[in-house]
Design a protein that fits this description.
Number of strands: 2
Number of domains: 2
Largest sheet: 2 strands, antiparallel
Number of helices: 13
Radius of gyration: 20 Å
Distance between the termini: 27 Å
Strand content: under 5%
Structural class: mainly alpha
Helix content: over 70%
Shape: globular
């Protein structure tokens, strides 16, 4: 999405990425939080000390660090010419989530909510999450590109209301999801047929323009999230997709640093004039946005700059080692 937006704005042309981004809009961000909840099932096994260290302080550390890094790098282009302007923008970023880092800002709040949702309270919180989504979805923003809300002036509040329900669905539904994936693993031909039928139904719903209706946003977001989970299951059986697993294992590095490599490669490629085809240009920028952070993470992994992607001891609670 960010690749398509940036390149299209730079060259004034659209490519096939535009269609892909529009097709995935109803489930792309819901799936992100759906799978985040699914993978966060171990929250309940952590004592409060470990929970705060691994699920609150960890994200706080990376958000603050990369907010400062990106602010400094963007200071020239963002008209932040004086130190006080950079500092003011940094402080504002602690209140209003900054650009591509917004999901790191809201994830700890999702995890804290899931941690507190036990017993009957879980049903109350789940019901409130559904109502909050319907409210936030009634004020859409983002056009063809992203599911987002403008219900309030706060990105954090809007995102929390819009996506909490998907995180909780993955968190509370893990046992059911595991059963579905096991069935899919045992019945591969039927699974492929079901994925094709889902894709056709999804495409038809997009054609009718109903995927953005509050309530249906829940349906198409959940169905898309399940479809991606099943597709991942199928791809995991193929050795040729080991690189995708590697990206998943180092996804934090990509999420934190991709904007730097995306923006710099886009500017260089456009300025060179060597690549004029918008599809090829977007593909190259996307490759840099993924491979750049992975190469950077690997290069600094054991050196003095390891703190870019790994918390140093002073950023953890005493006695706690880095955890998932």
């Amino acid at each position: 999405m960010h690749t398509a937006l940036g390149v299209e704005k730079e060259i004034g042309q659209t490519g096939f990425f535009h269609s892909i981004v529009a097709w995935t809009k109803p489930f792309r961000l819901p799936d992100f939080f759906f799978m985040s909840g699914y993978l966060a099932v171990g929250l309940g096994a952590l004592n409060w000390r470990l929970f705060v260290d691994r699920k609150i302080l960890r994200y706080l550390y990376f958000y603050v660090l990369w907010l400062l890094i990106i602010m400094l790098l963007k200071s020239g282009t963002a008209s932040l010419l004086e130190p006080w302007q950079v500092m003011l923008a940094f402080v504002f970023g602690l209140i209003e989530p900054f650009s591509t880092l917004w999901f790191i800002y809201v994830l700890p709040f999702f995890m804290l909510t899931a941690r507190l949702a036990r017993g009957r309270l879980a049903y109350i919180i789940a019901g409130c999450a559904i109502l909050a989504h319907l409210w936030a979805a009634a004020y859409p923003v983002g056009g063809d590109y992203a599911m987002a809300s403008q219900a309030t002036p706060s990105t954090a509040i809007n995102s929390f209301a819009l996506f909490l329900v998907f995180f909780l669905a993955g968190f509370f539904g893990r046992r059911w999801i595991d059963g579905m994936l096991e069935t899919a693993r045992q019945r591969l031909p039927q699974t492929v047929v079901m994925l094709i039928l889902w894709a056709l139904m999804h495409s038809y719903a997009l054609h009718l323009g109903i995927t953005g209706i509050p309530g249906l946003t829940l349906l198409f977001g959940m169905l898309g999230g399940l479809a991606v989970a099943v597709l991942a299951l199928l791809l995991a059986r193929l050795n040729s997709f080991g690189w995708l697993a590697y990206c998943g294992q180092h996804s934090m590095a990509i999420y934190l640093a991709f904007v730097i490599f995306m923006a710099s490669s886009r500017e260089l490629l456009v300025a060179s004039g060597e690549v004029t085809n918008p599809n090829l240009l977007m593909a190259l920028v996307l490759a840099f946005a993924i491979c750049g952070p992975l190469a950077m993470e690997r290069a600094v992994r054991s050196g003095a700059f390891a703190f870019f992607f790994s918390r140093p001891g002073w950023a953890r609670l005493p006695g706690n080692k880095e955890g998932a």
